[in-house]
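Notes from the 1:1 (GR / supervisor)

We went over the backlog. Supervisor wanted to see one worked example end to end before approving the batch request, so GR pasted a single chain during the call. The sequence is below; no edits were made to it. Supervisor asked that the structure be written out right there so they could see what the output format looks like.
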Amino acid sequence: MSATVSAQRGRGAASNPTNRFERITLERDADWNPEEDPAPRTQFLRDLSQTAVTYNDSPDLGFGASVNPYRGCEHGCIYCYARPTHEFLGFSAGVDFESKIMVKENLPALLRKELASPKWKPQVVAMSGVTDCYQPVERKLKLTRGCLEVLAECRNPVGIITKNFLVTRDVDLLQELARHHAVSVCVSITTLDSDLAREMEPRTSSPRQRLTAIEILANAGVHVGVNVAPIIPGLTDHEILQIVEAAAGAGAKFAHYTIVRLPYAVKDLFAQWLTLHAPGKSEKVLNRIRAMRDGKLNNSNWGERMKGNGIFADQIAQTFAVACRKAKFADLDRFELSTASFRRPENAQLRLSI
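Structure output shown during the call:
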């Protein structure tokens, strides 16, 4: 990492930290001039994955199966816990994560094949379990829409998490799934401060647009809620009540939250971002995170990594509970996605019957 680091326009990360799996690294000179040598443009690279659905056994997640059309994310959220996954591809968790995007071009076809197989057991599939399925390039590539077309045809339930207004483009498919109680959408809102969002989540939809997305989906009959995530103590935790209230006013039916977690390279990237964009709050934020993570900036223990522990974590949990009561989100688990209407793809059934 260079000795002097400055913010890069349109990027969350200001640098490319060393990949912990690589022995050779490249870095810019300390006297780098961004006008002479601008930051890299976004590249889209072919991902040759041969399966559509990935599985996990984490007790912290509400799903066991997920579909992710993209690896890496243009949104560039500085706190993103998925950044270290790019190191498995030989890239950096920094600028590489938001500028080198792996694209699964044949994902809808792979998903259709897997759902057609007799081995497939109907179950809830999450989209955006790792990176956002509605990041900007989705407008052009339509891989998420292609997957939703398959899921709607099969009436297989899906849970979607996104920060992008683009989810409203697919309201027709979401309505079709909703007819079978087979879809739930969670729109993530980290802050209502548009200036802070622009610096922290540079290529996401604005907070106002996300609230509008909730309203559009709710009016269309889609089960939609808000994910107040991640809550960053000392920076955004004071907005919990306002975010839940605004989301409820837009038509949200439920709310969830997580506390920011900073695994591996994300710790240094986030600390660097604080120094550049919120220097007066840097120490307070980092100390609050440590207070909820057993003195560290990250605690990966199951049961603790999403919500933290200690007095500040308890305060956030209590505030969130109050916000949900005021919004009349009485029972977060009442709505259950259904597999009752699942059916194999029609042409696949014909082939199997021959």
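Supervisor's comment: The chain is about 35% helix and 10% strand.
Batch request approved.
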